[in-house]
Amino acid sequence: MVIVVKTGSKLRHPEKANKPDNPIRRKPEWIRVKAPGSKVYSETRKLLHGNSLVTVCEEASCPNIGECWSQRHSAFMIMGETCTRACAFCNVATGVPQPLDAGEPARVADAVAKMGLKHVVVTSVDRDDLDDGGAGHIADTVREIRLAAPKTTIEVLTPDFLRKDGALEIVVASKPDVFNHNLETVPHLYPSIRPGARYFHSLRLLQRVKELDDQMFTKSGLMVGLGEKRSDILQLMDDMRVADIDFITIGQYLQPTSKHARVDRFVEPSEFEALEKTAYAKGFLMVSASPLTRSSHHAGEDFEKLRAARLNK
Prior knowledge:
This protein has eleven helices and nine strands. The protein is α/β, with parallel strands linked by helices.
């Protein structure tokens, strides 16, 4: 569950308004999930809407929303709901963000403590408008959680901090347990899928985390079904291992709207199983690969497996 404070209504994707439509393909049986409707799900939804909160789970139409909300799994999205990037796969609104809310880190920490979370994911929109890309705000949130819920393990899912010298160091110094930054796709698709980012910068960001703190777990995710070949995925895995990344997630890209990048194909479950075996063979400590895998899905359970894998290595 990714939570952001609502800041008002707006046109969701003005930068995509004049783009041609990409018809949304019918999903295969293995992608479909039951409609959410448990008592705990309803309670969570009522709590969020009653407090004027917005969730990326809803806005991005995440297929795991029913499962996660029913288990009160939480990943908090900080620094607002407006992103300064316009990636072709993402359903988060693009525009000029609001100023940072200085009280947000403490509120997130208070929520983590009250919910009794064992593991929390802290993610954010890209904030290219800020001198440090929001690194200080992320670090403040990590520190506040440590004070309010010292037994909770913390995973940060950060922007790339492109052209933000010193930003990465600020986040690493706050000592999250897992540093996650998603590569999202293979290099040759960056110009069309992730035009505001640079593949080798993101890769180097993750490598640099290990140079700063070799005990910090690193994690990155890949979407498939965007037009990549198997050889592209294998090369990306090799690049990740050179950067000493511990944990890879691989999931099916699902097109949010007709204005987003089209789904090239739906990858069958057997292919995900083969990719998982290959990734383990290449030396990853932890692999999560399935059609419905998402970066924050089962993050707490996966962290325990990741920690155990290091001990048994």
